[in-house]
Design brief:
Layout lengths: L3 H20 L14 H4 L1 E8 L10 E8 L5 E8 L5 E10 L7 E6 L2 H6 L8 E6 L5 E5 L6 E5 L6 H13 L8 E2 L4
Antiparallel strand pairs: 1-2, 1-8, 1-9, 2-3, 3-4, 4-5, 5-6, 6-7, 7-8
Organism: Thalassobacterium sedimentorum
Keywords: Signal
Pfam families: Lipocalin_2
Amino acid sequence: MRLLRPVAPALLLLGLSFFTACRALPEDPPATVESVDLNRYTGLWHELARLPVFFQKDNERATAEYVMNDAGNIDLVNTAIAPDGSQRSVTGTAVPVAGSNNAKLKVSIDNFFAQIFGSPPDYGNYWILKLESDYSIALVGSPNRKTLWLLAKTPEIPASKLQAYIAYAETLGYEVSELIINNGH
């Protein structure tokens, strides 16, 4: 218990900083797709690229499994996979933001920080920026451009398609030079 005392203020400050940074909508938020059919969006997604995030190690890859629930929201399981094959998962819920045609979701993860700091802002923290017409590839980011994921229903996509999505993210103002690429892993 004594070891947690010096760490607790740092964790609280980190969580508070994250919460505060997510509260303000930027003046020029990125454009999203026009609409999303959540039934088609559900399924298993593989992370092909992402900006670094504090909750996932740089050498980990991830999957996200989305399932529609009876309330019309999405239950999710995000799993980080280490190079040695070990896994750790978190669960949560994605709720469509009113008026966004399901292109913006408010994702809440069932963890310690979410319980303390509450759910994300009303404009959502998971914006679908680009989506293949067959729902096989999606580019997802936060409106403040701090997080970005390239997801696909397969573990790998052609390099030309990967580069096209990265180029599109750059036009939206995301810092693509920092992307961690997992295509094919």
